[in-house]
Write a structure and sequence with these properties.
By secondary structure, the protein is α/β, with parallel strands linked by helices. The chain has a single domain, classed as P-loop containing nucleotide triphosphate hydrolases (Rossmann fold, 3-Layer(aba) Sandwich), CATH 3.40.50. It has 14 helices and 12 strands. It has helices at residues 15-29, 45-50, 54-64, 74-83, 118-130, 138-143, 145-156, 173-181, 193-207, 212-218, 222-229, 253-272, 295-304, 327-343, and strands spanning 3-6, 34-39, 97-98, 110-113, 161-166, 184-189, 235-244, 246-247, 250-251, 288-292, 314-318, 321-325. The strands form 3 sheets. The chain has an 8-stranded mixed β-sheet, with helices on both faces. It has a two-stranded antiparallel sheet with strand order 8-9. Helix 4 (74-83) runs parallel beside helix 5, helix 9 (193-207) packs across helix 10 (212-218) and helix 9 packs parallel to helix 12.
């Protein structure tokens, strides 16, 4: 089965939230598949939501971040790999915890490799390990650590597995581990110029393509090394236009203008480099999903750890504030999420 990395080289586009709702919805619709979320963003926002919301989830995360071998998190896994960098860990599957034991709103077939701020601290040690001259395969072995983790989890399960990986916006070493483990790349964006530039950076960093000046530098680093070492990189799978601003039921003109520029950029890349796309024979315009801007849904979901399929319309009391979830907008959000899951 596949693995999907949610990434944009720009922050604030909603990737962690979308990773959470997509993983939960996929697990809900595919009860015979084991869905595993790997949270490789040091902020661990996806883990917080999965484990019960920003307040409760934050408390539960602390239970997994004990020092030493009892640190059951992605940081604990990387720490263990650093102790024996080039030997696969026999018990790596233990880092995937059953989420329903902590948040009963989550489908029972969803597991989590918990996020950990230690990932940021370990980043430099991981990078230096990858640069060792002995063994000659050091870089390839290190860059495959998360893929090794996925393989270990798969081997320990009887059911098919699908992985959802939440990435940090930066292209730090832990993001490189994430994309090297993914089969497909899901790119959320908001309708603004910085999102468009973030997408251009993805194309340059992963595939050495795009603007000649920027790509010339990218070809000297990750892209070049991955190609030399035979690392299979993910294909561009789906583009999520997040927080679409509506006016009288239609996208606003300002949104349409910014969104058009992003579509044009991706269309231009598609015409020149179809092989980097997951579906090179399908019109790239058909791989976009529009998610409406519905702040009330995101607030309730993120603060309470409630998957979209469990959310019902009506008034909600969240931290002493009354938040109204309306039927029409909620249906629109569920429809958008359903389209995304059909793509996966």
């Amino acid at each position: 089965m596949s693995s999907y990395a949610f990434w944009n080289n720009k922050g604030g586009v909603g990737k962690s939230f979308l990773c959470f709702v997509a993983a939960c919805e996929y697990a809900h619709r595919n009860p015979d598949v084991d869905v595993i979320v790997i949270d490789l963003c040091p902020q661990a926002n996806t883990s917080e939501m999965i484990l019960g919301g920003q307040a409760e989830g934050g408390k539960i995360i602390k239970k997994f971040l004990k020092p030493g071998p009892d640190r059951v998190s992605v940081g604990g896994y990387l720490e263990q790999r650093l102790s024996s960098p080039f030997i696969q860990i026999e018990d790596a599957a233990r880092y995937a915890i059953s989420v329903n034991d902590y948040n009963d709103k989550i489908p029972t077939n969803l597991s989590l490799v918990c996020g950990d701020n230690l990932v940021e601290v370990l980043g430099e040690a991981v990078r230096q390990t990858a640069q060792l001259s002995v063994p000659v395969t050091a870089w390839k072995k290190v860059i495959s650590w998360i893929k090794d983790l996925q393989d270990a989890i798969r081997e320990a399960r009887e059911n098919d597995c699908v992985f959802f990986i939440d990435c940090n916006p930066s292209f730090a070493i832990y993001t490189q581990l994430a994309v090297a483990a993914a089969d497909n790349l899901v790119i959320p964006f908001t309708a603004d110029e910085s999102s468009r530039r973030g997408i251009e950076n993805i194309i340059a960093l992963l595939y050495g393509q795009g603007d000649d000046y920027i790509a010339s530098f990218a070809r000297l680093s990750f892209f070049k090394r991955a190609k030399e070492e035979g690392i299979k990189l993910p294909r561009l799978h789906t583009f999520i236009s997040n927080r679409v601003t509506l006016f009288d039921g239609e996208p606003s003109k300002a949104f349409q203008a910014a969104n058009k520029a992003i579509h044009s950029t991706i269309e231009r890349i598609f015409k020149k480099h179809r092989t980097i796309f997951a579906y090179p024979k399908v019109a790239v315009a058909d791989r976009f999903v529009d998610f409406p801007d519905y702040h009330g849904v995101s607030v309730v979901v993120s603060l309470t750890g409630t998957p979209i399929h469990r959310l019902k319309a009506g008034p909600k009391n969240i931290n002493g504030e009354r938040i109204q979830v309306n039927v029409g907008p909620l249906k629109g959000y569920k429809d958008a999420l359903g389209k995304l899951i059909e793509f996966l």
